């Protein structure tokens, strides 16, 4: 089952939404999220949420939740 | 005493090789009382076989070499079955177990019912409708930032150039400091410079309002999804558009956001393209110049500039991908589309305030500092008979320094020292282009309307009345977003001091083609070298070589694009 997630991503042409992928794999989105998190921990997938702006940005005022502009960026997951 | 324990009627069992080792390892670990007292043995064995390093250290500490050797032996035996991926096999078996259990226990409809988000997505992310909807929403955003925010821009401008300047002059007069360089510094430096940028807070406020609604409602992720798909079809890395979405706010976090791209080449390519997305700092420049030269279609001009930025980025990306960066197939990826929801006032306000306060912080540091340096250079005479803070700006040190760049911009129609100087200071921060223009085009006495002596109470009443009037005008401007004009047509007004001076300046430098030169100037501002903070971010992320490529490359592209606009426009007009 876990391998199917990687395989589906490898075979996908272009960006795919999490919902689309869950329908394709016939899995609940919650289950798929768990599988994705596992592969992220294993280093096979990369989650954009874990690569936040860490620069000394003179133009923004990073609050407790990080850069205010960066928070508008949608989350994405990619094969490494 | 009787104790009751809830025991699961169904027990999760792994494949037999794993079960055998789990039993062996549990027994070995069971000889250590410290471990038995702290952990359930089967659970501990599972965690250890899956490679939990923290627990492994704990077992070594409490269980000694016997436990560690038992673990190593179990792992070695299982590796003959599963290789390095023992943890993958174990987690996979758990997922299978839960999946099978759920399949037996749950009855699902053959065709899952569509949620509201699914239904909306069928339209919003539709292959053919997605991009027109995205462009339509962008249009609404820019109408909001120009037409609806304009009355508040005028109101703040009137407050700063009227009562606030008046109060400062009066205060200096009371303290016996009027008429000197200090008054010039405060009025021509701070008020004209920082105030000139603060005037555009309503513009940024409405931009951040629109962005907050798009983000909070869940649409922003869809826009990235739709644009990604387009970019993917064009052979670009679709994921590149995700940092670009951030670039509409600020280029700096957008450059850092390229870290999400796994391939070094894609990261650099996206980093080079991100600054073409028009950041919010450039918006005040567009609003100022578009309002002067294209008052009836400022929204359209600004919308066109944002679109130009996207098209240039895509076009350049395709060119670089086919040349310098190789034509590898883009890596597919998953994007999370959050469910649509009604934006909350609290969230919208929070985002608007956070972003606007970041801008204010910027205004009181970088913009204030640059405005004072510009004032100092404008106050220093290098020719003529003027004295410090009492010299013709044409004869100032700033005019002399900026004049060096004038020949570079002459073919673009804006080869005057005023615009050259504004563009030079724009390297510090893009908002500074506005503050410098207001300082250099400042016509003494033209901004301050001659009014009779007023009391503070009367000033405050006028400020309050002006705000109410601006609110009324903004409400009347709202229907203009969908093409209904409720505002009374205003007679063509004679340009005020600043507007007139800027018009005259562009007319003079372009041989009478002021509007065309202004359009070329806007295109140049859109595309030219990013601000120094963005440049520093590019250096940190991609190294000095690519930083210079970005600085020089963008300057050349901006110059060529402005040349095409101005010279091409002259050819056809």
Automatic annotation (TrEMBL), chain A:
UniProt domain Transcriptional regulator HTH-type FeoC: residue ranges: 1-64
Transmembrane segments: none
Gene3D superfamilies reported for this sequence: Winged helix-like DNA-binding domain superfamily/Winged helix DNA-binding domain
SUPFAM superfamilies recorded: Winged helix' DNA-binding domain (SSF46785)
Domain of life: Bacteria
Protein's UniProt name: Transcriptional regulator HTH-type FeoC domain-containing protein
Originating species: Candidatus Chloroploca asiatica
TrEMBL record, chain B:
GO-annotated molecular function: ferrous iron transmembrane transporter activity; GTP binding
Stretches assigned to the FeoB cytosolic helical domain: 14-106
Sequence intervals crossing the membrane: 126-144, 189-214, 234-256, 268-294, 300-320, 359-378, 515-538, 545-566
Domain Nucleoside transporter/FeoB GTPase Gate: residue ranges: 197-292, 365-544
GO cellular component assignments: plasma membrane
Keywords, sorted A to Z: Cell membrane, GTP-binding, Ion transport, Iron, Iron transport, Membrane, Nucleotide-binding, Transmembrane, Transmembrane helix, Transport
Membrane topology, from the record: Multi-pass membrane protein
Keyword Cell division part of the UniProt annotation: no
Domain Ferrous iron transport protein B C-terminal: 302-355
InterPro entries found in the cross-reference section: Fe2_transport_prot-B, Fe2_transport_prot_B_C, FeoB_Cyto, FeoB_GTPase, Gate_dom
Cellular compartments annotated: Cell inner membrane; Cell membrane
Family: Belongs to the TRAFAC class TrmE-Era-EngA-EngB-Septin-like GTPase superfamily. FeoB GTPase (TC 9.A.8) family.
Physiological role: Probable transporter of a GTP-driven Fe(2+) uptake system.
Protein name: Ferrous iron transport protein B
């Amino acid at each position: 089952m876990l391998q199917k997630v990687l395989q589906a991503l490898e075979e996908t042409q272009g960006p795919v939404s999490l919902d689309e992928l869950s329908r394709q794999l016939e899995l609940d989105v919650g289950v798929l999220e768990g599988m994705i998190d596992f592969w992220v921990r294993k280093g096979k997938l990369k989650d954009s949420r874990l690569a936040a702006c860490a620069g000394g940005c003179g133009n923004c005022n990073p609050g407790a939740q990080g850069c205010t502009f960066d928070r508008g960026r949608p989350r994405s997951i990619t094969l490494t | 005493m009787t104790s009751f324990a809830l025991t699961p009627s169904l027990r999760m069992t792994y494949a037999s090789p794993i079960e055998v080792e789990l039993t062996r390892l549990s027994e070995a670990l069971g000889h250590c009382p410290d471990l038995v007292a702290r952990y359930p043995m089967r659970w501990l064995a599972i965690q250890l076989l899956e490679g939990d390093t923290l627990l492994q250290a704990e077992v070594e500490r409490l269980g000694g070499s016997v436990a560690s050797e038992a673990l190593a032996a179990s792992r070695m035996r299982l590796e003959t079955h599963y290789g390095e991926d023992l943890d993958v096999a174990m987690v996979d078996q758990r997922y299978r177990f839960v999946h099978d259990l759920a399949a037996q226990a749950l009855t699902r409809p053959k065709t899952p019912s569509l949620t509201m988000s699914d239904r909306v997505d069928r339209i919003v992310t539709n292959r053919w409708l997605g991009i027109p909807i995205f462009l339509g929403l962008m249009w609404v955003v820019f109408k909001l930032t120009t037409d609806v925010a304009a009355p508040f821009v005028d109101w703040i401008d009137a407050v700063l150039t009227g009562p606030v300047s008046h109060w400062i002059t009066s205060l200096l007069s009371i303290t016996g400091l009027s008429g000197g360089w200090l008054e010039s510094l405060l009025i021509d430096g701070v008020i004209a410079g920082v105030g000139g940028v603060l005037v555009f807070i309503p513009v940024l406020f409405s931009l951040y309002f629109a962005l907050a609604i798009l983000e909070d409602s869940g649409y922003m992720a869809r826009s990235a999804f739709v644009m990604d798909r387009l970019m993917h079809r064009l052979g670009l890395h679709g994921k590149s558009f995700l940092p670009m979405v951030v670039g509409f706010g600020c280029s700096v976090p957008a450059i850092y956001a390229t870290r999400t791209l796994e391939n070094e080449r894609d990261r650099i390519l996206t980093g080079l393209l991100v600054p073409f997305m028009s950041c919010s700092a450039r918006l005040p420049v567009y609003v100022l110049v578009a309002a002067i030269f294209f008052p009836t279609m400022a929204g359209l001009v600004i919308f066109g500039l944002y679109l130009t930025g996207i098209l240039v980025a895509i076009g350049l990306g395709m060119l670089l991908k086919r040349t310098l960066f190789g034509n590898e197939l883009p890596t597919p990826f998953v994007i999370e589309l959050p469910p649509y929801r009604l934006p909350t006032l609290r969230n919208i306000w929070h985002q608007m305030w956070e972003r606007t306060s970041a801008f204010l912080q910027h205004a009181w540091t970088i913009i204030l500092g640059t405005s004072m340096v510009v004032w100092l250079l404008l106050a220093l005479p290098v020719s003529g008979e003027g004295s410090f803070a009492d010299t013709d700006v044409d004869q100032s040190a700033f005019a002399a320094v900026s004049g060096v760049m004038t020949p570079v911009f002459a073919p673009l129609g804006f080869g005057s020292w005023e615009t050259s100087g504004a563009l030079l200071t724009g390297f510090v921060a893009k908002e500074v282009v506005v503050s410098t223009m207001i300082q250099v085009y400042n016509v003494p006495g033209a901004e301050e309307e001659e009014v009779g002596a007023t009391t503070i109470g009367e000033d405050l009443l006028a400020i309050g009345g002006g705000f109410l009037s601006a609110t009324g005008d903004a409400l009347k401007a709202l229907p203009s977003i969908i093409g209904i004009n409720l505002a009374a047509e205003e007679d063509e007004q004679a340009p005020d001091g600043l507007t007139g001076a800027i018009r005259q300046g562009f007319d003079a430098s372009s041989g009478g083609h002021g509007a065309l030169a202004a359009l070329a100037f806007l295109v140049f501002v859109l595309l030219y070298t990013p601000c120094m903070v963005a440049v520093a971010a590019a250096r940190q992320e991609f190294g000095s070589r690519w930083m210079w490529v970005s600085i020089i490359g963008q300057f050349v592209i901006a110059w060529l694009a402005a040349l095409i606009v101005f010279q091409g426009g002259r050819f056809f007009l």
